[in-house]
Design brief:
four-stranded antiparallel sheet; alpha/beta; about 230 residues; 12 strands; 8 helices; globular; single chain
Length: about 230
């Protein structure tokens, strides 16, 4: 049974999410603030963290940032306000994997959660595969990426996007990258792809403002350079 950590300082939302996800057959642990969430992850294993951006003690973005200092594996789904685009950008920069805008429908949230968990399960059962594109090496089994022999730390969604880009020497559209990364046709807003690409560039490029490995193909999407 998959274990979900739900973090929200509003009791009604927290309890509602807990009830909804338990009805889907998931094990749910709830926390009301960022500090207790960080402590929970340090002492227990989770398959997904559903995290509100606006918390009473420290922001959800800061929670993601602290978690990613030690844990690059567990996916994080942010809950954010409709007009908080800056929070979404900051969340992706910190290492979040996806977001849902409040108010959200139960169907949308469950679909996002199921997509993340399905993708995580597929990752666990993939064979020992290593891919190369230029001086970028991707070890899918060990969740490791090396650039010119130097290890870099990617989040699960970043790793899957980079892995897809390494499959063929061609440009991939934003929708194509997100659909493949989540293994579903129900994907986040195209803009979230740009956020993930920006994060990947910060980690694999010598100069993210002038990328030489992960290239933009105008009018199409992105391509990973082979040589």
């Amino acid at each position: 049974m998959s274990r979900i950590l739900v973090v929200d300082d509003e009791e009604a939302i927290r309890d509602g999410l807990g009830y909804l996800l338990r009805a889907e057959g998931l094990e749910v642990v709830c926390r009301s603030d960022g500090s207790s969430a960080i402590d929970a992850v340090a002492h227990d294993d989770f398959d997904l963290i559903v995290l509100d951006v606006m918390l009473g003690d420290i922001s959800g973005v800061e929670v993601v940032r602290r978690l990613r200092a030690d844990n690059t594996v567990v996916p994080v789904l942010l809950l954010t306000a409709r007009d908080a685009e800056a929070d979404i950008v900051l969340g992706f920069e910190a290492g979040a994997d996806d977001y849902v805008v409040k108010p959200f429908s139960q169907r949308e949230l469950v679909s996002r959660v199921r997509a993340i968990l399905r993708r995580r399960e597929l990752d666990r059962h993939e064979g020992d595969r290593e891919r190369r594109a230029g001086d970028v090496t991707i070890d899918l089994l060990r969740h490791e990426v090396f650039v010119a022999g130097v290890p870099v730390r990617l989040t699960p969604i970043e790793l899957r996007i980079l892995s897809l880009l390494s499959e063929e020497d061609r440009a991939y559209s934003r929708r194509e990258l997100l659909a493949a990364a989540w293994d579903t046709s129900f994907v986040p807003d195209d803009r979230s792809c740009d956020g993930h690409i920006a994060n990947i560039r910060r980690k694999i490029e010598d100069d993210p403002s002038d990328p030489t490995r992960l290239l933009t193909v105008r009018g199409v999407g992105y391509r990973l350079r082979r040589a």
